[in-house]
Amino acid sequence: MEPRKLRLGLLLAAGAILLAFVLPIAPNAVPLRERPVIPELCGFAVVLYLAAAWLADRRATIIGLVATGLSAAASLILLQDPIVAGAARSGFWMIVIATWLSAALCVMNLASARELRGERHRIVNLLVPLLFGATVFYLWEVGVRGFGVPPVLLPSPSAAGARFFNSLPTLAEDFTQTFIRGVLIGYAIGCGAGLLVAILAHRFEFLGRGLLPLGNFFSALPLVGIAPIMVMWFGFDWPSKAAVVVLVTFFPMLINAIAGLSASGHIERDLMRSYAASHRQSLSKLYLPAALPFIFNALKINATLALIGAIVAEFFGTPTQGIGFRISTEAGRMAIDMVWAEIALAALAGMAFYGFVALAERATTFWHPSYRT
Amino acid sequence: MTSSSVALPQRAPFSHVRQVFVERYAPVATMVLALIAIWYVAAVAMNYTLVRDAFEREETPYTTADVLAGTMDAERPLLPAPHQVIETFLDGVFGYSPLAPRSLVYHALVTLSATMLGFVIGALFGIALALMIVHSRVLERSLLPWIICSQMVPVLALAPIFIVVLGALGLHGLLPKSIISAYLCFFPVAIGMVKGFTSPDLLQVELMRTWSATPRQVLLKLRWPASMPYLFASLKVAITISLIGAIVAELPTGGEAGIGARLLSGSYYGQTVQIWAALVAAAMLASGLIAIVGLVERAVNRSMGAH
Prior knowledge:
- By secondary structure, chain A is mainly alpha-helical.
- Helices cover 78% and strands 0% of the residues of chain A.
- Chain A has two domains: 3-149, no CATH class; 165-371, MetI-like fold.
- Chain B has two domains: 16-78; 104-303, MetI-like (MetI-like fold, Orthogonal Bundle).
- Chain B is mainly α.
């Protein structure tokens, strides 16, 4: 990033914080100078901003980040004051603007760094999105609390987080009900059945020719709509959710596995033939390993689909636990922070599930060109 | 599948049409027929006790044939027979005036309008996002991981909260549903278009550079045309997701109108046949929408010089 732009931005950030000393924080609030800790934090941040602006190179990123942290801390401490929360004025927003500006500058400076090798490259690649996310969360927190957005509309991330940790037992119950019972069982059955049928379709050409167009057709349908029927057939408890998950995950696996089983090359097939390999042998030694990337693709798609299927199925009736049940009832009671806690749970579960499948993929398809570096 | 480069079995000289028929349509037709047969057998098996119990409750004498006939048109069967579903579907489509609340056309139109609005918003947003990501290294590094991450999140679980929040803001009806659809379908478009915009190889990009093309010219003359296959592939995914989003978004609204509302009211009142008919309508809608995207794709391909 250009040093001139960086310098200008950092100077602006320092100026904004200096303005905060002059401008009102909130109506009838104690001015910034007379508060404990905050003037020191802000002053130190200004000094660091100036130092970073003076350097204006790669080193400035680190100094700028420390200063960003200081000013973010200052604004968050200010929000603890009930007079400021909900009625913040220009002085407070100046600090927020300075934080946002310097965070953005640091992220941009970091992301535009070139010629990084090995370990450093990976750290930067991890750090940039993390900082970006932290900035978004910070702005969300400060915006909600500074403007006094009613928690019914949008709770602050800290409120949702506090709710998350205060209701861990409930969340654990919901997690077991939805994820361990509904999703995992359905996922295993659905993917397993899809793979088996694909192997059959690969063995018997006629079956394959008939099944592939049908599978394509079915996988494009809004299959979650089958949920009310499954609830009618299998009752309110987890079997109906697992059944929806089975149905939702079956077709992507079928299509991908059929494509994968015919992905092996002519030369390899001829080689198996020249070894006089039986179908079972060539299946286990050639077709299935060659199909693994496709199968894992389906497993990854299904990881998300399964969670969606189970949660949506719970909207149609559940025993009194489960992520979908909790979301719909708490949304009806306007307890939006609990809803966000459940969404965070679902998001964490989804990411962990996906990450687990991706790790398994790395461990088993290490030979694939896309992983060889 | 068993064909090898060494020994290709000699085919009898089929005429081309017949070969296409045997190879493509016969297997599919067989599978469809098998599916329908299985459905009928399952309908008999699942409804048998239900119908028999009804006969016994009324204490009318009955034979097995009566029960079998009863399984074919039970009023609230566990699994309705295919002809019942089709009958109800056709009745729902043609039996009422298209704007009557009992007409399936009306519900399909409600869902379709939310789907289309959401699809257009989501696709445009996705393309814009992809453009920004392709042109900015900073955004690529900071935003793209989050977009990929958010694909692992069951976004559909957000549907009820969106409806509640937007309802509290005074937004009802079409817009909240299409926002959910848009939110769901911008991901595949954004990811697909990032791939598409970066799909021209280095040689082509460098050729543009030797002509000292501006970024805008590179976009219009190279990246945009090269991204067309990716665009349509992701649009097909996006429009199905958009439909699913619209249907699920209709669930928490309390069942006013739309296919999702039809599903919900069917499940509340135990109207199985109604649920199945709504599902058939959803299937028709989905395949129709994909077919339309496919037609547009073919037209665009042809105008770009494909055969």
